[in-house]
Structure formats: C-alpha cells, structure tokens
Automatic annotation (TrEMBL):
UniProt xrefs under InterPro entries: AAA+_ATPase (IPR003593), ABC_carbohydrate_import_ATPase (IPR050107), ABC_transporter-like_ATP-bd (IPR003439), P-loop_NTPase (IPR027417)
Transmembrane segments: none
PANTHER family: CARBOHYDRATE TRANSPORT ATP-BINDING PROTEIN MG119-RELATED, SUGAR ABC TRANSPORTER ATP-BINDING PROTEIN
UniProt-recorded name of the protein: D-xylose transport system ATP-binding protein
Amino acid sequence: MSVTPVLDLRGVGKSFGPVQVLHDVALSAYAGEVTALVGDNGAGKSTLVKCLGGILPMDSGDYLFEGRRVRVNSPREAAELGIEIVHQDLALCENLDIVQNMFLGREWRSGLVLDEPAMEELAARTLTGLSVRTIKSVRQPVSSLSGGQRQSVAIARAMLWDSKVVVLDEPTAALGLAQTQQVLEVVRRLADKGRAVVLISHNMNDVFAVADRICAMFLGSTVAQVRASDVTHAQVVELITSGRGADGPSGVPARMNGVGRARRGDEAGPG
Ligand SMILES: Nc1ncnc2c1ncn2[C@@H]1O[C@H](COP(=O)(O)OP(=O)(O)OP(=O)(O)O)[C@@H](O)[C@H]1O
C-alpha cells in the first residue's frame, strides 16, 4: 500500500549568491511517523528547514503538501498549512506562565475577556496527552521549568492549532540523560497522535530511539531516505560523514538505494 506523505519536498535547490547550499534535496514526512533529518555540521539541514518553513524561498524543486503542489512563501503560510517549527531557542517567554506561552498571540476570548479556564484546560490536556508528567501546574512561569520541561511545553504548543507537521530542531541538544529520555517520549507521543514529525538531530542514540525513517544529508544533498529498521548506526554515520553507505556497488547499500534516492513519488509509504 502506498501512503501519500504529508510533506514531500523534491529536487530542492538553494543558493546564497554564488554558493549552492542545497542541491536536489528530497525529504518526505509521513503522518504518525518520526523522520530524522541527519547530517554533519553545514550539511544543509537548517537551510532546508528554513525553506520548508517559508523563512527562505527555494530556488528550485517541488513542495507537495498532502499530495498537492503548494507554494510556501512565509512562515504564516507554513502555519496555515499546519506546519509548526520548534526552533532551538524555543521562543518561550520566561516571565509568562505555561498557558500564556502556549496561547501567545492566539488567545481564546469569551466576550471581551480571555477565556482562561478553557485555555488552562486545553494546555493541561495537551501536556497530559503527550505524557508530560513532571509539570505540576500549567500556571507555573516558564522561568521555573527545567530544560526538558521547556522543550516539552514548546512541543505541546506546536501540537495545538491543528498542526500536521512538527519540525523539532535538536530538541535534546542541551539536555541531560533523564530529560533527554522524557523529551524523546514526548516526541514519540507527538507522532503517535498522528503528526508527521521531522526531528533534526546529531545524536544517533536519539535517532534510533524514536525515528521510523532517516533522511541523511551530505554536503547539501540527500544521500539516503531509509527506514530506521533497515540501517545500522554505523551505516548512518558513514552516510553522514562520507555521503556513502558501508556497502553496495555505489557505496550506498542496496536497500538504501531503493528507498533512498527516490524522489518522484515512487517510494512505498508506511505499512
Ligand atoms: N545566509 C547564508 N549565506 C551564505 N551561506 C550560508 C547561509 N546560511 C547557511 N549558509 C551555508 O550553508 C551551508 C549549510 O548550512 P546549514 O546551517 O543549513 O547546515 P546545517 O546542516 O544546519 O548545520 P549545523 O548542523 O551546523 O546547524 C553551510 O556551508 C553554511 O555556511
């Protein structure tokens, strides 16, 4: 059975002046799955995410959303499609509480006043739904939260508003072991709740702990899109560092080639 990816980028190119940073990049993300976007420093992950989030225009390539060709020219247009990006800085306001942060700029009103009880209830329900257990009150200021709790709040905020694709930029980069574990559970729950999650990560343990698929980039190109269960840790490291797999005639393992360089909608979907 072939399932249409929620997000499907094909043949993406992007230059900054004379420097071509992305060439022929492909990225597909499916509902209910975590797709890890991996690549060494400077491979082009952030640039790709800026293109998919409407922050930077793509020079070339196709942007398909739920099978339809779309143009995403601004972050607002990306948000309207249901694409939420959780940047590394999280963009949370320290002095505001969790509810205020989650509804910032999109507050619910009841007549002339804010509908605090309804917002509070949904904020708490969203966090509980993501199995965020360590936060005692949604009225806590963000300044009182740990790094992992902040990350969880930012992810929960991205889950509100009918998001369909949630992109997480290195969500565990600044966290210790226990908090990393908690955030990875939240990431998994996000996908289990039907979102297509794109997880940017340098950490192979994280990638193999939660990812269903892996999209590997090397020097601005996609070198493989594979199921995580089809590759080993070592193969992914090899792809990231040399752009080639550990075996196979072209350097890319046969199974990677089959799924990997496919860009024209001929890839089998999940299931
Ligand atoms: N505005 C820009 N102007 C010129 N070059 C840029 C610009 N932004 C990024 N680049 C270059 O594009 C390449 C890809 O950068 P990018 O930040 O997308 O990589 P990355 O995979 O996200 O790296 P990292 O993991 O270190 O964040 C790098 O060589 C970078 O120097």
